[in-house]
């Protein structure tokens, strides 16, 4: 039973355009959500997070939107740059999750010059 | 501040052997979590330690164990290695725990079991 799902395994975007990565979750007890970026053979790098009391959080080119009623979050990258090419994981946690992050399967973003 | 460090970065073992991986968290962080990443299963939670106590454990067999020292450094041990244990093992630290604080990951240890 996958509680966090990233239904798009890959996404290709032109440099300068917007990249939108999506994530759905099933557990209504999740209250903290994060996005990580990962290059091969490296650990995930934290990008941005959002608490369930908010519906939007912005940090530079990265914005995360949370729609609690739809149990859906998205990461917007504007403008996309070739250096953004990596695998993006969304993760969720909650007070009843016993101190663990539940990760989605990841979306591989390719930003073409 | 230095980031999370993991040693060794790469390891090759044979079936039946055991292995110990080490993780040093960010200074001041008391929570250390371990994850296994494989192509088929993605990132899966192994366990979390806080102040030398295991607070939470994922769904892995008892061959996987860990501990945390008083300086918050952590080790994980895998005994009787199987081919399926080949994976990238990631350690992450946070100040109070993943439920409340952002976890920061180390570069991982790539374990290959032959």
Question: What does this molecule look like?
Answer:
The complex is a heterodimer of chains A (113) and B (114). In chain A, 0% of the residues lie in helices and 53% in strands. Chain A is built from no helices and 11 strands. Chain A has strands spanning 4-5, 10-14, 19-25, 32-38, 45-51, 56-59, 62-67, 72-77, 86-93, 102-103, 107-112. In chain A, strands 2, 4, 5, 9, 10 and 11 form a 6-stranded mixed β-sheet that branches. Chain A starts with a strand and ends with a strand. The mean pLDDT of chain A is 93. Chain B has 114 residues and is mainly beta. Chain B has no helices and 11 strands. In chain B, the strands form 2 sheets. In chain B, strands 2, 4, 5, 6, 9, 10 and 11 form a 7-stranded mixed β-sheet that branches. A 4-stranded antiparallel β-sheet of chain B has the order 1-3-8-7, with no helix packed on it. The N and C termini of chain B lie far apart (37 Å). Chains A and B meet through strand 4, strand 5, strand 9 and strand 10 of A and strand 4, strand 5, strand 9 and strand 10 of B.
């Amino acid at each position: 039973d996958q509680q966090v799902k990233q239904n798009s395994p890959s996404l290709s975007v032109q440099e300068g355009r917007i990249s939108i990565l999506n994530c759905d979750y099933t557990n209504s007890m999740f209250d903290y959500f994060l996005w990580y970026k990962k290059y091969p053979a490296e650990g995930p790098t934290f990008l941005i997070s959002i608490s369930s009391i908010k519906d939007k959080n912005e940090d530079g080119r990265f914005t995360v939107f949370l729609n609690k009623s739809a149990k859906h979050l998205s990461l917007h990258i504007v403008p996309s740059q070739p250096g953004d090419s990596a695998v993006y994981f969304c993760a969720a946690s909650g007070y009843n999750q016993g101190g663990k992050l539940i990760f989605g399967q990841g979306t591989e973003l390719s930003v073409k010059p | 501040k230095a980031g999370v460090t993991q040693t060794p970065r790469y390891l090759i073992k044979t079936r039946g052997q055991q292995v110990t991986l080490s993780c040093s968290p960010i200074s001041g962080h008391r929570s250390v979590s371990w994850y296994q990443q494989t192509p088929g299963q993605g990132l899966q939670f192994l366990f979390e330690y806080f102040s030398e106590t295991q607070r939470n454990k994922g769904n892995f067999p008892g061959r996987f164990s860990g501990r945390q020292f008083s300086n918050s450094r952590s080790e994980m041990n895998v005994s009787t290695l199987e081919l399926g244990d080949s994976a990238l093992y990631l350690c992450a630290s946070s100040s109070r725990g993943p439920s409340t604080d952002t976890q920061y990951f180390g570069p991982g240890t790539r374990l290959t079991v032959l």
